[in-house]
Amino acid sequence: MNDLCWNKEFAMGQVDNDEELLQELIMIFKDSSASDMAILIQAVEKGDSAEARGASHSLKGAAASLGLEAIRDVAMAIEQDCRQGSLTVAREKIPQLETLLALMREL
After folding, report:
1. CATH number at residue 100
2. Based on the structure, what is the number of domains in the chain?
3. d(CA 46, CA 24)
């Protein structure tokens, strides 16, 4: 779990220390991140940096709200590169992002 750089204290603060609510939000993130990841991969395959930027932005924001700092950082790097019309970072970082999301599913 250390690879995720999960700031659980931050996440608990976001939900007023309600463990049940946090687990519910993590479940929602698991679903939404799978969808965002599929969109990101498809956008890269199509060469659509705007769509890739949108998917990575969504991943970044949701991960940030849950204190999933490693996912946030990778998604942010992809988003910033896509803002320049590039998919280089996305192509490079998708495997890392997939690994981090797999680790997150173990929470």
Report:
1. 1.20.120
2. 1
3. 33
> In terms of residue numbers, what domain contains 63?
2-104
Cβ atoms < 10 Å from Cβ of 10: 14
Report which secondary-structure segment, H or E, holds 23: helix 19-46
Check: pTM over 0.90? Answer yes or no: yes
Q: Which two tokens stand for residue 12?
A: 């608990």
pLDDT tens digits for the chain (107 residues)? 569 899 999 999 999 999 999 999 999 999 999 999 999 999 999 999 999 999 999 999 999 999 999 999 999 999 999 999 999 999 999 999 999 999 998 88
**Helix/strand/coil for 6:** strand
CA-CA distance, 70 to 72, in Å (whole number)?
Answer: 5
